[in-house]
């Protein structure tokens, strides 16, 4: 199998498991539909694929990694639903489809986000009960530290409170390291806990930090030059809203160079982590992606 | 000490611990202020007091129970912030103060709610790591099943999607057993897990279900006849919005009788659970409260 086939296979495994996890009774129909709408809207499933790939490389339990990765994807999905709300970024489209509140209304969109965050902890605490493994609790703690008021939510707070004010490059790094970086880092580090390989934590952190920055710079470049159809969302939005991005601060060429630099550093570490080469190819793919 | 002094003492212990738990660095100032604003707005702290009182009665670890109770109070607070939002119940006042979004804006209010839910998991997973006790994970799982899409969030979904439609008495019971009952039940049942006394689970569930229903009926009665100043929120809101309540369906006298019946049943069980008498007095107090 070549890289693209492996990526598609992993995405399909993640999608299948997400469907299974959401296929439960006892949820009011409109709420259930709203939750499934956003989870099934797709996305690259980068976070769960990072979790399972690194766990595989460390000889950990892949099925457990899959559930941890899926829970992280649910947290990621909740954050997108809430970020898209009129009071926040006020986005009408996401992944080529109307945003959750456009279809289900704001109240249900808020509740669907809340429910996804809740659901992630339900899944993971059940996993920890089934395994009775202290490392799994450590992994859970990592995830929710990353998604909380000192992680992802701090990043989103800085983002929305700094509109109409130009962030410095350092502030921009900090904002993104919180808003998207922290949860990408957790997607990677939980693999070390699941596999009982805390000795690899530092290395994995370094990898994920370079990957996270490169990922965000590429996002900013795509917002500047990307193809609206391939992206599935409005481009040029950052520019119009006068938001600082890596492109507006560094210029397009310098931003591309920075993305390449961080990708290169991430790949060097990935080669040491994963002898199959999948992780480094994934890192390369995230640099050249078109959405 | 009489009951009122004991209640005040327990409330003060809970408030002190909530302050300690929230006194952390690394949260953006406006988000931190918004979180503290709603947590410090007060409330009776019934949920954590239930957790610590029942744990005390079962000879469990009170300090751990305190943190579990405080985490539940943070979940309760997040649910109030989100429920008050314009897209939901659109409330301007809560506990005599402007609601969170009135002070901090909708975006920060949404994020503060998200952060509180996250924070509850951070606290509890850290507790579980410190203790490495499977029962603590079971307690965590109970809490988030209660607050999730098949519990509290299901109740809120039924509530907001049934406005302008009159619920039957059975539907009203179901809605409240989810919206407020599930998390009250969890406040009580976690005490059994913390104390390693799962043999008392069934009894505690019975107690909490009667208490939860009585609590909700009294809420509806207070909305109908209560003193706005003592309640700290607008009264008569249910009537104006044409919402089904225990008073509109049963009438005031029948509603009072039902509240007394459930209180009586809860007290009978409380007497068996807690020989100090505090739990039964707390149950009685919730019937005659004015806010």
From TrEMBL, chains A, B:
The entry's keywords: Isoprene biosynthesis, Magnesium, Metal-binding, Transferase
EC numbers on record: 2.5.1.10
Cofactor dependence: Mg(2+)
Cellular compartments per GO CC: cytoplasm
Cited PROSITE patterns: POLYPRENYL_SYNTHASE_1, POLYPRENYL_SYNTHASE_2
Enzyme class, UniProt record, top EC level: transferase
Gene3D superfamilies listed in its UniProt record: Farnesyl Diphosphate Synthase
Listed GO MF terms: (2E,6E)-farnesyl diphosphate synthase activity; metal ion binding
Catalytic activity: isopentenyl diphosphate + (2E)-geranyl diphosphate = (2E,6E)-farnesyl diphosphate + diphosphate
InterPro entries, sorted: Isoprenoid_synthase_dom_sf, Polyprenyl_synt, Polyprenyl_synt_CS, Prenyl_diphosphate_synthase
GO biological process: terpenoid biosynthetic process
Annotated family: Belongs to the FPP/GGPP synthase family.
NCBIfam families noted in UniProt: FPPsyn (NF045485)
UniProt-recorded name of the protein: Farnesyl diphosphate synthase
Species annotation: Thermobrachium celere DSM 8682
Lineage: Bacteria, Bacillati, Bacillota, Clostridia, Eubacteriales
């Amino acid at each position: 199998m070549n890289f693209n086939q492996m990526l598609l296979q992993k995405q399909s495994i993640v999608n299948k498991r997400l469907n299974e996890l959401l296929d439960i009774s006892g949820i009011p129909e409109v709420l259930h539909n709203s939750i499934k709408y956003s989870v099934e809207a797709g996305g690259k499933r980068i976070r769960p694929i990072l979790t399972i790939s690194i766990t595989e490389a460390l000889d950990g339990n892949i099925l457990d990694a899959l559930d941890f990765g899926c829970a992280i994807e649910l947290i990621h999905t909740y954050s997108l639903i809430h970020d898209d709300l009129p009071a926040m970024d006020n986005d009408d489209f996401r992944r080529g489809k109307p945003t959750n509140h456009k279809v289900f209304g704001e109240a249900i969109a808020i509740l669907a986000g809340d429910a996804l965050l809740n659901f992630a902890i339900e899944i993971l605490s059940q996993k920890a009960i089934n395994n009775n493994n202290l490392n799994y609790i450590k992994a859970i703690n990592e995830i929710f530290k990353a998604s909380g008021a000192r992680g992802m939510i701090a990043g989103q707070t800085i983002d929305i409170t700094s509109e109409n004010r130009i962030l410095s490059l350092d502030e921009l790094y900090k904002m993104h390291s919180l808003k998207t970086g922290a949860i990408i880092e957790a997607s990677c580090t939980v693999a070390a806990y699941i596999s009982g390989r805390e000795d690899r934590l530092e290395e994995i952190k370094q990898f994920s930090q370079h990957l996270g920055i490169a990922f965000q710079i590429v996002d900013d470049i795509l917002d500047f030059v990307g193809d609206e159809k391939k992206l599935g969302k409005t481009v040029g939005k950052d520019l119009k809203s006068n938001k600082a991005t890596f492109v507006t601060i560094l210029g397009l060429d310098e931003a591309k160079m920075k993305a390449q630099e961080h990708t290169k550093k991430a790949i060097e570490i990935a080669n040491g982590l994963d002898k199959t080469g999948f992780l480094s190819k994934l890192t390369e793919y995230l640099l050249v992606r078109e959405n």
